[in-house]
Task: inverse folding
C-alpha cells in the first residue's frame, strides 16, 4: 500500500448472510474493534440489512455499502434496486461485477460498465470487480483479460468520476475456495490494473486509485498481502462475517 498517494480500504462483502437483527449485533461487536483504523472500513450487506446496518454504524467509522445495483433509474425490473434507492438509504459504496454475479446471474463486462456508470452518476463509490478463471491463468492470459475487463468497466467514466472508483482484483479461482494468490501474484495483477488505468487517465489518476485484492484474504494472510506496493486493501468475504477476523485484517491495513 501507499497511503500517501491513495486510500487503503478494507471492505466486507457479506454475500447472502445475516438477518437485520444479526446485522445489528455483528456491527455493534465490530465497532470498538475497528474504531482506531487509519484505513477506510466498509461493510457491503444484503439489501434487507441496509437500514439496520446504517443505524448500527451511525457515529462510527464504518461506512455501509450494497452488493449490487441496477443500471436503470426505475422501471419494470422486478427484484432490482436502483442507485437512487441506495443513495437515499445512506449507502456510500456498491460492489459491481463480483464473480458470483458473473457466474450465477449472467453479469457481463457490458452490464458491469452500465452499473458502474449508474452508481457513479448517483454519487456512489463503485467497487468494480475484475479477475480471471483458473483456466485463463493457466493459459497465461491473466494480464490481457484483466486489462480488458478494466477498460470495458470504465468506458464512459470521466477522470473526475474515477475519484470514486475502486477496483477489486478477485481471481475467480480463489473465491470461496480457500486458495489465495501469493502476495507477489496479487501485486503483479494489481500493477497491471494500475498500468491500465494510467493508459486511460494518466499516471496521477492511476496512483490515486485504490486497488484491492479480493481472493480469500483472511486474518492469516492479510498482512503479507497489504504489504505489497500495489495492493491497497481487500474485498473480504467469509472473514468479514466474524468480528475478530475482520478486525485483524483492518489492523493489518492500518499498520501496513
Result:
Amino acid at each position: 500500500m501507499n497511503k500517501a498517494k491513495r486510500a487503503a480500504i478494507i471492505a466486507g462483502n457479506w454475500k447472502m448472510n445475516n438477518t437485520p437483527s444479526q446485522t445489528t449485533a455483528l456491527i455493534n461487536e465490530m465497532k470498538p474493534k475497528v474504531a482506531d483504523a487509519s484505513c477506510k472500513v466498509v461493510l457491503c450487506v444484503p439489501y434487507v440489512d441496509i437500514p439496520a446496518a446504517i443505524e448500527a454504524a451511525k457515529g462510527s467509522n464504518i461506512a455501509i455499502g450494497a452488493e449490487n445495483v441496477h443500471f436503470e433509474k426505475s422501471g419494470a425490473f422486478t427484484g432490482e434496486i436502483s442507485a437512487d434507492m441506495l443513495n437515499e438509504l445512506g449507502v456510500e459504496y456498491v460492489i459491481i461485477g463480483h464473480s458470483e454475479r458473473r457466474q450465477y446471474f449472467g453479469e457481463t463486462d457490458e452490464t458491469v460498465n452500465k452499473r458502474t456508470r449508474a452508481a457513479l452518476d448517483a454519487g456512489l463509490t463503485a467497487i468494480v470487480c475484475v479477475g480471471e478463471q483458473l483456466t485463463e491463468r493457466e493459459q497465461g492470459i491473466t494480464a490481457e483479460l484483466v486489462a480488458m475487463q478494466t477498460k470495458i468497466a470504465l468506458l464512459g467514466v470521466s477522470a473526475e468520476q474515477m475519484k470514486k472508483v475502486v477496483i477489486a482484483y478477485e481471481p475467480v479461482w480463489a473465491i470461496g475456495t480457500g486458495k489465495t494468490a501469493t502476495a507477489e501474484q496479487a501485486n503483479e495483477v494489481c500493477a497491471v490494473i494500475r498500468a491500465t488505468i494510467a493508459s486511460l487517465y494518466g499516471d496521477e489518476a492511476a496512483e490515486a486509485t485504490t486497488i484491492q485484492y479480493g481472493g480469500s484474504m483472511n486474518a492469516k494472510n492479510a498482512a503479507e498481502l497489504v504489504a505489497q506496493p500495489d495492493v491497497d486493501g481487500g474485498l473480504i468475504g467469509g472473514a468479514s462475517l466474524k468480528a475478530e477476523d475482520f478486525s485483524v485484517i483492518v489492523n493489518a491495513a492500518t499498520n501496513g
Notes: The mean pLDDT is 96. The longest helix spans residues 183-201. The longest strand covers residues 40-45. The domain at 9-255 is CATH 3.20.20.70 (TIM Barrel).
